[in-house]
Amino acid sequence: MRNGVRSVFAAVTFLTAIPLGRRAEVAPRHLESGALLFPLVGAVVGTLVAATAWVASLAFQPMIAGVIGVACGILVTGALHLDGLADVADGVGAALSGGDPAEAMRDPRLGVFGGTALVLDLLLKISVVAALAEGGTFPTEVVAAGAVARVAPIALAAALPYVGPRHTWTRAVGWRTCVGASLLAVAIGVVAVGAAFTPMVIVAAAGTAIVGRWAAVRLGGTTGDVFGAAVELSETLALAAALALA
Known about the structure:
Blueprint: H1 2-15, H2 28-34, H3 38-57, H4 62-77, H5 80-96, H6 101-106, H7 112-132, H8 140-149, H9 152-159, H10 175-193, H11 197-218, H12 224-245
């Protein structure tokens, strides 16, 4: 039981800024088993974002509600995924100019490509959340997108070697974990949005595949930044797909 609780704590600590890991000793082996729960953690984060945007929409204009909702998600996750997106975008910029993408990603300074990626991602996400919450509608699509996006790091860990520092949990993550997490995400998504979850899965998988392909070619594998970028990109694309069908 203790290991099960620690696995939950490890999953929450890895994907959010909630410091549950400080209340219990969390080891890499706990994250190995906790990876299966990533979609559930994503769904909880998505629920917080959706609820915040929905409540805000009752008092403010839709765009303001969208800003407040997305800001809640950034606060809960500690901007972890946004940081990864910015770093990978800077790596893309460096590769296009003939530089070393890995070096650019390690640079703590925000480059032009990273800043542009952040602005475009946030503008799109805020606009979509605002539109989904317009009229006081609870945007369940945000819950589904949060769940499916958290499959991205598991799929990348199963498909590619890990070349970044620190994380050892990826060694034990295989396709069995990926399938289990995918089934959990599908269950959450179908309950949340029904058949509309299918296109969300397709575009989220496409976003993850694009990030993974670039990482494989330019970096030789995945890193924590690659995981974060895949989560952020696939979540935003899934939300856009949901809005397109709404």
